[in-house]
Amino acid sequence: MQSRPPFPPGGGGAPSSASPFDADVAVPVSVLNRAIGTMLERSFPLVWVAGEVSNFTRAASGHWYFSIKDAGAQMRCVMFRGRAQHAEFTPREGDKIEVRALVTMYEPRGELQLNVEAVRRTGTGRLYEQFLKLKAQLEAQGLFAPERKRPLPTHPRAIGVVTSLQAAALRDVLTTLARRAPHVAVIVYPAPVQGAGAAEKVAAMIETANARREVDVLIVCRGGGSIEDLWSFNEEGVARAIAESALPVVSGVGHETDFTIADFAADVRAPTPTGAAELVSPQRTLLLRELDHRTTALARGFGRLMERRAQQLDWLARRLVSPAERLRRQRTHLQQLRARLASAGGRPLRDAQARFALVRLSWQRWRPDLAAPRAALAGLSRRLDAGLDRQGERRTAQVGTLAARLEVLSPQRTLERGYAALIDAQTGRAVRSPSALKREKRLTVHVAEGSADVTLKDVQPRLTDGF
Asked: Is residue 126 over pLDDT 80?
C-alpha cells in the first residue's frame, strides 16, 4: 500500500523535522486521520491475528464485515470482495479463526480496523499441511481412484452406522432412516469420533462390520466441527480401512463445506450425516408407490394373458371335430384336389391346341396364292425354250458358214493344190524371202500329205520372167 503525506498539497504547511505537526496550526480531522492511517500502515506490516468471530455480516457488494475478539479486546475487520471470494470457508459466529491483515484507519469515522487479506481456522496451518501431504500420498497410491468406487445397493436389507453413541449425527441418521425406510434394519458400530485413539477405534469398527457381514452398506459419520474435531477422519488408518472395506462405504463427516481424507477414500461422499442416510436408504413412500405400480402392471399383464389363453382355447375348440367329420372333410378335400388335378392335366393340351389353331389360321391368312405365278413361270419357261432353240439354230448356221470359209482358207487346202511350206529348221519360222535361202541351209518342207527335212545344195538366182 502506498503511503500518503500527512498534509494535502497546499494544506496547513509542511511538517517540521522535529514534529509532524505545528503546535500553532489547527489540523483538520481528515488530515489527522490520514496521518494516523499512514503511520499505522508504516509501523505495522501484514500480521496474523487470532480471535473469535462476532458480528459477521456479508454486504450486498460481497464485502465481509466482522469483529475478531478474545477475552480482553476486540478489533473491527473488513475483507473486500476481491479477497473474500477466494476464501476457503465463510466464518460464522463463534468460529475461532486467524486473519492475515494490515492495520489501517477508516478515515471517515476515525475507527481502527484490520484490512483482511486471508483467513483460516485457528491451527489450520500445520494441520492443513498434514492434510494435503497425506491426501497427495494416498492419491498417488490409488486409494481415491474412481474405478475402485463401488455402487451403493438399491435395496439394502441392513445398514451399518459407525459413529459415537452420544453423537448428534447418530440421532439424525436414525431419524432419517426411520422416516424413509422403517423396514430396513440398522446396526450401530459404536466408536468415539474425537480425541486420542478415536481414529484406531473407527478403523476397527469398519473392519468388524466387514467381518460380521450383517449389513449391505456402511455409513461413517459425525457432526460438524473444527479441523481439530474432524481430524480423526483425516488419519491414514481410517482411510485405508475404508478403502479396503468389502462393504460400500458412505462418508458423512461434518458439514457440506468440510472435507476429510475419509470423504475421498469412501465410495460416496455425503454432505452431512443426514445426507448419507438419504443416500443409502430407499424412500418407503416411493417403494410403496413403485410396488403398487408393479402390482397393477402385473395384474394387468396377467389379465391380458388370461384373455389370450381364453381366445386361444376358443380357437382350438372350433378346430376340435369328430374323426368321422374329419374324414368326411378330408375326403371332400381329396375329391376337390383330384378334380383340380384332372383339370390341370388336360389344360396344357387344350391350350396347345388352341394356340395351334390360331397359328394355322394366321398362316392360312398370310399364305400366298401360287397358281398365277406358276402359270406365268410356265409361259416364261416355254418362251425361254423357244428362244434357246432359235438361237441354237442361228448359232449352228453361223458356225457352218464360218467352217466353210475356214475350210476355203485352210493351209491344208493350199498344200493339197500343190503348194509347199518351207520352215527354217533352226528358227522354226516360215521362209518368206528368197534371200533367206542359202547353201547348206536345213529346211523342213511341208506338203499336203506330210513333211521332209532337206538341205539346200545350191541356190539359183531369181528369174524375172516367169519360173
From this structure: no
Q: Looking at the predicted structure, is the pLDDT value of residue 167 above 90?
A: no
Q: Specify the CATH number for the domain of residue 64.
A: 2.40.50.140
Q: DSSP letter for 460, please.
A: P
Chain position carrying cell 491451527: 123
b (16+ CB within 10 A) / e for 100-134: ebbbbbeeeeeeebbbbeebbbbebeebeeebeee
Q: With left for phi above 0 and alpha for psi between -120 and 50, is residue 197 left, alpha or beta?
A: left
Whether residue 272 lies inside any domain: the answer is yes
Same domain, yes or no: 169 and 245: yes
Q: How far apart are CA 434 and CA 447, in angstroms?
A: 19
In a domain, 247, yes or no: yes
pLDDT of 123: 61
Bridging pattern class, strands 450-455 and 442-447: antiparallel
**Could you list the residue range(s) of the whole structural domain that residue 217 is in?**
152-286
67 backbone φψ class: left, alpha, beta (φ>0; ψ -120 to 50)? beta
Of the residues 255, 286, 317, which one is the last residue of a structural domain?
Answer: 286
Q: Which residue in 157, 155, 212, 156 sits closest to 189, CA to CA?
A: 212
The candidate with the shortest Cα–Cα distance to 257, out of 22, 432, 92, is 92
311 versus 239: which is more confidently predicted? Answer: 239
* In contact, 247 and 217? CB cutoff 8 Å: yes
Mention every residue, 6+ apart, whose C-beta is less than 8 A from residue 45. 102
User: Would you list the DSSP string of 320-353?
Assistant: ---HHHHHHHHHHHHHHHHHHHHHHHHHHHHHHH
Tell me, yes or no, whether 456 lies in a domain.
yes
Q: Where are the beta strands (DSSP E) in 59-107?
A: 64-69, 74-79, 96-106
CA dist., res. 166 & res. 365, Å (int): 123
**Given the DSSP bridges, would you call strands 64-69 and 47-58 parallel, antiparallel or unpaired?**
antiparallel
Cα separation of the two ends of the chain: 178
- CA-based nearest residue to 54, from 95, 26, 98, 103: 95
The β-bridge partners of 51 are 97
**Domains held by the chain: number:** 3
Residue 8 banded pLDDT, cuts 50, 70, 90 = very low
Give me the residues paired with residue 451 across strands.
446
pLDDT reported for residue 4: 41
pLDDT in tens, 36-89: 888 888 888 888 899 999 999 999 999 999 999 998 999 999 999 999 998 878
